[in-house]
Design brief:
It is globular, with a radius of gyration of 18 Å. Helix content is 66%, strand content 2%. By secondary structure, the chain is mostly helical. Strand 1 (2-3) and strand 2 (6-7) form a beta hairpin. It is built from eight helices and two strands, in the order E-E-H-H-H-H-H-H-H-H.
Length: 184
């Protein structure tokens, strides 16, 4: 009776869920990597997110599914870290995640510079305080609207805007400092 891990007698629930939710897997994993701080925990969090989302899919009332899934993922990540220092920086942790995006091939020199810039930006995002890191990833990497971010983090839109402005300001300052440090 199970087809592809889902109950075939569910009246199409599994197919609707797969159609709506599975295309967002990479985006969910990207956020999970920034929240969980390592690949294994991120994979576990995304899997738990999908299990919870499928289990409660009947309560989903339409509209964009992306913010709903991000909110579930966020709750999973926070619940998994309850009692521990949440979303702490591990600057010595090797970055093993591959980027979820690809750009056209560059010259070897451009490729080296792009990789250095990507690594620097990942490190700088990782060094942001948790509340700023979260909104920057949701907006700039996962392209959520301010309203959707507000839904995900359960905060007013003004708070989202403020956190984004502060995150961008901190990133800019850190980028300039890193650039100056590499040039000297």
């Amino acid at each position: 009776m199970m087809a592809g891990g889902f109950d075939a007698s569910d009246g199409g629930k599994a197919e609707r869920f797969k159609t709506l939710a599975l295309p967002l897997l990479d985006e969910l994993y990207t956020l999970a990597r920034y929240l969980a701080r390592n690949a294994s925990d991120a994979e576990d969090a995304v899997q738990e997110c999908y299990l919870r989302a499928f289990r409660h899919f009947d309560t989903f009332r339409g509209g964009p599914i992306k913010p709903w899934l991000f909110a579930i993922l966020r709750n999973v990540c926070f619940a998994g870290r309850a009692g521990a220092a949440r979303l702490t920086l591990s600057p010595d942790e090797p970055e093993t995640a591959q980027p979820m995006w690809r750009e056209p091939a560059d010259t070897p020199e451009q490729a080296v510079l792009r990789r250095q810039n990507t690594d620097t930006m990942r490190r700088l995002i990782g060094e942001l305080p948790a509340e700023f890191r979260e909104v920057i990833v949701l907006r700039e990497i996962n392209d959520l609207s301010y309203r959707d971010i507000a839904t995900v983090i359960e905060a007013p839109i003004g708070t989202v805007m403020s956190r984004l402005a502060r995150a961008r300001e901190q990133l800019r300052a850190a980028w300039i400092a890193a650039d100056r440090g590499g040039a000297s």
